Amino acid sequence: MNIGIIGAGGVGGYFGARLAQAGYNVTLIARGEHLAAIRKNGLQVRSIKGDFHVRNIAATEHIEDVKGADLILVCVKAWQIIALAGEIAAIVHPETIVLPLQNGVLALEELKESVDEKNLVGGLCRLLSEIQSPGVINHFGVEPILEFGEINRQETPRLHMLKDMFDNAGIKSVISSDIHADLWKKFIFICVSGLLAVTKTTYGELRETPELREMMVNLMNEIHQLAETIGISIAPDYVRETVAFIDTFPYDSTTSLARDVLNGRPSEIEYQNGTVVRLGQAYGVDTPVNRYVYYSVLPLEKKARSSSLIRG
Questions:
Q1: Which is it for the CA torsion 26, 165, 80, 13, positive or negative?
Q2: DSSP 3-state helix, strand, coil percentages of the chain (rounded to 5)?
Q3: Residue pLDDT, tens place only, 252-300
Q4: Under DSSP, is residue 246 helix (H, G, I), strand (E, B) or coil?
Q5: What is the pLDDT of residues 212-249, one digit of tens each?
Q6: If one looks up domain 2-177 in CATH, what number appears?
Q7: Are residues 275 and 105 in contact, defined by beta-carbon separation less than 8 angstroms?
Q8: What's the whole-number average pLDDT of the chain?
Q9: Strands 2-6 and 25-29: what pairing?
Q10: Are 226 and 279 in contact (CB under 8 A)?
Q11: Is the pLDDT score of 132 beyond 80?
Q12: What is the CATH number of domain 183-306?
């Protein structure tokens, strides 16, 4: 199977390296110093599950170089999807599976503007990872897992083919019977990232401070209520289970959104807490904690994007 990984950061780099290690023909789409390091030395993964080094893995900066791939994992930031959707549509063949792994709940809809829906499989992942240095991925928390399912909620042979492939690569995976609900469940969890950014805390600092812990729970409860109003089925005790999950994270761990905000880089705030605020307004659900988080980060986001345009 020929696999294209669009975005070789913490997510794409980790899963791409695992698949390449298992013998699959993987091509990474990367850029800059990261791309140069992968081409020269391969891709190193430092992981809580064991370090490994894939020395011979193809890498390019051009999406068209993976034209005709059987599987395309889309691992770029959520806000980059709109700009890339047309390029992705141009490289698929009738049987290509396009599996987006973005944070948020908008990636499938944005891809459908350009990519034929029959090529799309909904997906999400769970792991804490980042580019530690050019050519090096650091997986520092959470058991990596991929969840994926058909947009129409049917069980199809291609889902089992994907699961067999991920199993063979040592990647834990789950076929979702309702990928839309599972995307919202992750959405509830990841929107805590904005609170980490606003408070400049790690997960450990956030959860051990009673007032911040209460804000975290209220933030998630707002999104749970919003999901119910929209018609997404999520168990009533999901927020409690998610808080217990967060309690297992390494004390000093944080998220890519929080790191981006604190380092003055463009972030996914519009696709996380910003989406909550807009959908809350549309469906008549009050979201005060998410609104506070979003509007607190928004000036920094505007500044980061303005600086990014000036630099490049």
A1: negative
A2: 50, 20, 30
A3: 999 999 999 999 999 999 999 999 999 999 999 999 999 999 999 999 9
A4: helix
A5: 999 999 999 999 999 999 999 999 999 999 999 999 99
A6: 3.40.50.720
A7: yes
A8: 96
A9: parallel
A10: yes
A11: yes
A12: 1.10.1040.10
Cα–Cα nearest to 159, from 169, 151, 150, 168: 150
Q: What is the DSSP letter of 177?
A: S
Show the tokens assigned to 161.
Answer: 């083919």
- What pLDDT shows up at residue 307? 78
Give SS3 for 138: strand
Answering whether pTM is above 0.90, one says yes
Please calculate the CA angle 231-121-151 and round it to the nearest 5 degrees.
30
Q: What is the structure's pLDDT at 308?
A: 62
Q: What is the phi-psi region of residue 231: left when phi exceeds 0, alpha when psi lies from -120 to 50, beta otherwise?
A: left
Q: How far apart are CA 96 and CA 99, in angstroms?
A: 10
Long-range CB contacts (within 8 A, 24+) of 280-286: 280/222, 280/226, 283/226, 283/229, 283/230, 284/229, 285/222, 285/225, 285/226, 285/229, 286/222
In the Cβ-directed half-sphere of 219, how many Cα atoms lie within 13 Å? 28
Question: In 3-state terms, what secondary structure has residue 299?
Answer: helix
Domain boundaries, the chain: 2-177, 183-306
